Structure formats: C-alpha cells, structure tokens
Amino acid sequence: MAPWLLLLPAMAMVLLHPPTAAQAQPSPGYYPSSTVRAMAFSEGYDNLWGPQHQRLSQDQKALTLLMDSSSGSGFKSKRSYRNGYFGVSIKVQPGYTAGVNTAFYLSNSELYPGNHDEIDMELLGTVPGEPYTLQTNVYVRGTGDGAHLVGREMRFHLWFDPAADFHHYAILWDPDQIVFLVDDVPIRRYAGALLLFPNREMWAYGSIWDASDWATDGGRYRADYRYQPFVAGFQGFKIAGCEVAAPSACRPVPASPTGTAGLSPQQQDAMRWAQQTSIMVYYYCNDRTKDRALYPEC
C-alpha cells in the first residue's frame, strides 16, 4: 500500500484519549469556515520545496506531504495578504512520529529576513501512547529570529486524535486580533499593542519537517527514520482576506457573528472550554522562566 493511503478517512484508529461526554465539542455559534469556499491547491498555492515529496490528487483538492531522511516538503500561497482567514483540513500519521512537525502558518520571513513576523499552528509528533500536541505561536518583528527567541506559545492536547481523521485548522488574522480555530472552535485569541502585533503583509504556508531538536518533549524523542516516510494530508484549502493590492475599502473576514471586535459570548464560552478541559498544556504567560519584561501583555 502506498504510504499516503494511510490518510484515507476510512482508516480508523482507536483514540488515545477518547473524549468523555463532558469533553464533547461545544458549539461556538459561528462557523467562519462555512463562509469561505474551498479551492483547488493550485488556485491558491505553489510548491515551495521538496516537490518529490508531494502527491496532489487528480482533482487538485487534496495534497499529501511526505518526510523522510532526505527531505521534508512545503508549500506557499501565491499571494500575500494584510489580513484574512486561512484554513486547511489536516490529518497526520499515527504511530511513532516524534520530532515531526506538520505546520500551517503565516510568515513574511522571505521578505523581512532577520526581522520577520509569523503566526503558527503546528502539530508536533509523538510516541505511541501519547497524544499529539498542537502548538500555536506568534512572533512579531524579528522576535522569532536569532539566539534570543521571544515566542508566545500556547500548546494543547486536543479533544480528538488528529491522526484519526481530517480536522480544520484556521488562523483568522484581523488588523487588531488573531484567532486560532480548530473545527471553528476558538482555542486562542491574541491581541496586542502595535509593537506587539504583526501588521505587515504575510503569506500562508504548509509544511512537514524534522524538528527533532525541540518538538517532542523538548527534544528527548527524535525522528526515527525506521518509520519513514512520515505523511501528512492537507485538503479543504481556504483563503479569504485582503491581498496587499486590494483597495483600502477591503474588509477582513469577521471573527464573530456580529462583526465587532472580539468574540461573541458563545465563542468565548467555547474557547474557555477548549482551554480548561485539561487540554491546554502550556501557556507562555504562566512560564516563570520567561523574562516578564519581554511580555508586557502578561
């Protein structure tokens, strides 16, 4: 069997941590993914690296990325944006995947090397018996560059097994807030003062790569290429927002049903549930090793 067939939805897997009734996903009351149409991969994206490790479906609506000891693979949006909704459905590989990073993110690192902005959603691989970790992060104006990283990480053990089926991961980036969504449930909202907020044009990216130095238990478990290739499936590509060349009248995708700043009460309840149902495993503001002078929002 070809390795990318492992990603077919028909392939079932026992959940490592099956959700209880109390953990059933709440309704956020607003589903921004339903307001954005899915596109063919080639309509919105180009290969960035590792083309030999990509498998595009015949209808161009599903892409499989592979990583082995020779290379990973990645793609990049055709256009840059100054705000928008960026979403994709992802399914990762079960079994031993330590050190493997499956990422969907926004960045302008190629335009501003050494001084870039970035908004990340990363599924960090694991060892059998332990859940995947979803890491979200925000870097602003070079704080992700060089030796002194100033990251704003929040990490989650999700209420489902991301290797069992496809789920939709999205970044909603407005001029004054960033909302991270999983199946339309807000899991994190980030807002900061001008100097702490990314407000320059960015592109959307997806990739699979070897992050053994830190991804799994701080680097304790590394990629083991006896289990290669490592496979990740992407489908349901959705982008909506204001391109850099769009007129000033262009308005971003609203983060709430009312279109006002912030989230609705129902969305806030869903986000509290996501952060309090024993799944938020790291929050940078609670990390006593951090220099608080670098994180005034905390």
Automatic annotation (TrEMBL):
Annotated compartments: Secreted, Cell wall; Secreted, Extracellular space, Apoplast
Annotated keywords: Apoplast, Cell wall, Cell wall biogenesis/degradation, Disulfide bond, Glycosidase, Hydrolase, Secreted, Signal, Transferase
Active site: 118 (nucleophile), 122 (proton donor)
GO molecular function: hydrolase activity, acting on glycosyl bonds; xyloglucan:xyloglucosyl transferase activity
GO CC annotation, single: apoplast
Superkingdom of this protein's organism: Eukaryota
GO biological process: cell wall organization
EC number(s) per entry: 2.4.1.207
Name under which the protein is recorded: Xyloglucan endotransglucosylase/hydrolase
The organism's taxonomic lineage, starting at the top: Eukaryota, Viridiplantae, Streptophyta, Embryophyta, Tracheophyta
